[in-house]
Amino acid sequence: MERARVVIVGGGFGGLEAARALGGKPVEVTLIDRRNFHLFQPLLYQVATGGLSEADIAAPLRAILKGWPNITVRLGTAVDLNPEARLLLLEEREAVPYDFLILAAGSRHHYFGHPEWEPEAPGLKTLEDALEVRRRVFLAFEEAERVRDPQEQGAWLRFVIAGGGPTGVELAGALGELTRGTLPGEFRRIRPESAEIVLVEAQERLLPGYRPAASARATRALNRLGVRVLTKTRVLEISSQGVRLQQGEKETILAARTVLWAAGNRAAPLTQTLQERCGATLDRNGRVFVREDLSLPHHPEIFIVGDTASVRSPSGDPLPAIAPVAVQEGRYAARAILARMRGERLQPFRYRSPGAMAVIGRHEAVVQTGRGVVFGGFLAWLVWLLVHIRALVGFENKLVVFVRWAWSYFTRNPGSRLILDLPEKGEPQ
Amino acid sequence: MERARVVIVGGGFGGLEAARALGGKPVEVTLIDRRNFHLFQPLLYQVATGGLSEADIAAPLRAILKGWPNITVRLGTAVDLNPEARLLLLEEREAVPYDFLILAAGSRHHYFGHPEWEPEAPGLKTLEDALEVRRRVFLAFEEAERVRDPQEQGAWLRFVIAGGGPTGVELAGALGELTRGTLPGEFRRIRPESAEIVLVEAQERLLPGYRPAASARATRALNRLGVRVLTKTRVLEISSQGVRLQQGEKETILAARTVLWAAGNRAAPLTQTLQERCGATLDRNGRVFVREDLSLPHHPEIFIVGDTASVRSPSGDPLPAIAPVAVQEGRYAARAILARMRGERLQPFRYRSPGAMAVIGRHEAVVQTGRGVVFGGFLAWLVWLLVHIRALVGFENKLVVFVRWAWSYFTRNPGSRLILDLPEKGEPQ
Fold this sequence. Notes:
2 copies of one chain form a homodimer. Chain A has 429 residues and is α/β, with parallel strands linked by helices. In chain A, 32% of the residues lie in helices and 26% in strands. Chain A has a 6-stranded mixed beta sheet with strand order 5-2-1-9-21-20.
C-alpha cells in the first residue's frame, strides 16, 4: 500500500512542529515554504534594533529536518488549491498531490484599510522587514548627527511605534536600551539619549491581552527607559513627516522620521483561496474557522494551524497569534492525522497556556504565568532569556545567541548594527 | 592655536588603522565612510558560502572609535576635491575642510572592459555582494532539486569561478566543503556532492603572486575537494547560460547557472578625481602613484593608502591589494602627519611582509611566511585561523566567530545559509 502523503505549507512554528511530529512515521511528508529557513519571529525586534544578527534567529529548514528520510523540503510558493483532486498548486507551476494538507502559512501585518501607510511605517514579520527597520533606525541617528536645523534633528530623533501589544512593547524597550545604554558617546553633535520614543496604543492599556498588573508593570518599566506611552490614542494618519494622532477629542501631530508598525495581523492570502475553493469561513483578520480537531468543515483532510487558524479558547476568546499556540496546534494536527490513519479519533484540541511574557530592557521583563501570576524585574528577565534560548532551534544558534547576549549584557555594545543598503548595490567611494 | 584637521576617507583596513594611530593625538580627525561599519573583507567568502553571518565580520565604526574624543565618524560619500581650498566635497552637498587628507577609499572588482558581465558574475567586495553570492549559491541547489531535466540540473550544479588568486581559491575551497561536507543528505532528488566546481585562471598557475610550491599545494588540496582547476585559460564570454573559455587554441563552452567573479580589482573612482584636480598619475588599475612617504606629488598634505595607492616594493613589483599592506600604510600615513607637525621627517615607507596565506578547506590551508617558506595541511589551517581571529576587530566578534567556527568544524553545519530576497520584500504564503 502507498503511504499517505502529508503536505505542509509553511515552515514557521506550526508547520515545523507538525513536520517533526511526523518524522519517522509511516507517511510521506513534504514541507513547502517560500523561504529556505525557519525564522524565530519572537526575536525579530532584536535584529531590528541591532542586538542580534539574522543568522542567530534563523536556521535552514533542510538542516533541521535532514535526519528524517520521510520528510522532503521544497522551496516554493503555494498559490492555489484543487480540493476535489487534492492538489496544491505552486507559483512555480507545479501541482503537489496530497492525502492530508496542513496549512500553516502564517500572517502578515495589517494596516486596517490603510495600505498606503506600509512604506512609511514598516512592520516586523520577516527578516527583510527587520533589516529595513534596522536600516531606518540607525540611519536616523546618522541623519540627526548630519543636519543642523534643530527641528529637523528632533524629527530624526523621534521614534513612533504604533501598537502596544508584545511586539510594540518589546520594540519600544529595545529602542530605549539602544538610545540610553548603547549609543551614548558615539556621536559628537547629538545626544542619542535625548531621543524620544513614543508608543501609541488605541486601547486603554498596553498589552491588552495580558492581566492589568502586567500592563502596569510594563508601562512603568518603559517610562524608566524614557518611553512615552500614549494609550487610548488612535493613529489617524502616517506620512513621511510623522503621525497625526487622536486622543479623545484632541488631535496631535508628531513630527517623526521613523514610524514603526506593530499594530495588526492578517492571515496569509492563502486563506482566501480556502474560502473560494472549500467554502471556508474567515474571521475579520482573515483567519479560518476550524472544527474542534483543527480540520476544515467538510474537508476533514485539511488542517489549519497557527496564525492562519481561528480557534476559540474555552472562555470564548480567539487564541492569540503567538508561537506556543502554533506549536501546540501543529503537533495536534500531526497526531490527528496519524490517529485518523489508525481509524481512531483524538480528543478535541485544547490549548495549554504556558503563560505570556514581554521583555522590556536589559534586566527587565514582565512574565504572566499560565495561572495568571504576574511578576517582573530581573527574575522575569532571566525566565524570559532561558525560555527563549531553550526554544531557539538548533544547538549552534543557542550557543551563539547566548554568547552574544552575555557579551552585550556586560558591555552594552550590540554588534549587529549594520546599515545594509539592500535594494542597490554598495559602491566604494 | 587651532589643531590640525585630518580627514580620512574610508573606514577599511587602511583608514581605520590611520584613525587609531591618530586617536588621542593633538589633531582633529574626521573619518568619512559611506557605510557605518568596518568590514573584514578577507572573510567575505565565508559569508558568501554560509559559514559566517554578516555581523561576524563587520563592526560599527562608531563603536570601534568611540573611545577617542578627537575622532568624529561621519556617514557620507566623498565625490570631489578642491585641493586649493583644501575642501573635500560630499555627495550630501557638504564641504569638509582639511589640513591633511588620507585617502583610503578601497577598490571594486573590475571586469576588464566587460561591464556587461557584472550581473551574470557577481564579485565579492561588499557585504551586499556576499549576500547576493550566497543567495545564488543556495538557490542553485534548490533549483537543481526542483527541475527534472538532467541537463538543466547539471547547469544548476556547476559553479564557475573566474580568477585563481586568493579570493578565487578560498571561494572554490569553501564551495568544495559545502558540497562535499555540509549539504549531503539534505536533498532528496540531487546529490550535492556531485556538483562541479570549476576554477579558471589565465596565468599558468593558481595564486600567481605566491611561490610555485604554494600554488602546487593549493591545486592538490582543491583537487581533493573535487574542484577542477583550469589554468592558462581565459574567459571569453559570460552569459546567464554559462561561460565560453579559451585554453590555448581550444574553445570550450561550460553550461553553468552560477558564475562568480574573483579576477580583477580597480581602485575607487575617487582616484580619477585626484587625477583631474591634482594631476595625480594612475596605474592601469586606477591606483595613484605616490611618493616614498605615501603622499601625492606636489600635494604633501594628501596621503594615499591601501588599495587606492600604487606602491612599489624594493623588488619593483607593486604591493598587492591586501589587508596587511593597507594596515601598514595607514599607520605610516598617520605617523608621517604627526612627524610633519613636529617638523620632522619619517624614513620612507617600507612594507614588511608578514607572509601570505589562503585557506582551502576544513583543515587545509597554504601558508607562505615572510621569508618564503611554504607549508600546508592542518598546521597551516590553524595558523590561518589564529591570525584571522586575532585580526577581527572587536572582542565580541572574535568570540562569536570562534564559537561558530569551532561548532561548524565539529558538525559540518554552517548556520548562516539564509536565502534573503533583498530587493523585494518577502510576503508570506
